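Hi V.,

You were right to ask for the full record rather than a summary. Here it is.
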Amino acid sequence: MKILVPVDGSETSTRALKHALTLAKSFAKPGKVLVVAVDDALFPGVERKIGADAARKHHAENFERMFAPARKALARNKVPVEFVEVVDAVATGILDTANKQKVDLVVMGSRGSGGIKGTLLGSVSMKVLAGTQVPVTIVH
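Predicted structure:
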């Protein structure tokens, strides 16, 4: 089983990763965990203004920040793990990665910000739930 876990450096996404690792270990044949960080694309024209190298550095720093807690949580892990970096809108990047990698499950944290719907799940969680054909586990 291949489990996709989007991370953003938050405590909630780290809890989701730990939950996915527990699930992966529970299968007769250990599953694989795909840890994905999605960094929003820069506004049109920004890369041209700051230069391609500065844009790459910007994304690299964001990916490092997002992956740092996940790497720490994986310190003594025996489950196969792969890290994926995506530059796109967050929900779109998660959904595209889930489709391309043919994952069996998405396990993600809920940030919940703004409005009643946002308080319960968060807009990215809602978009992923609505846009994927595979099961999604939301960890709070």
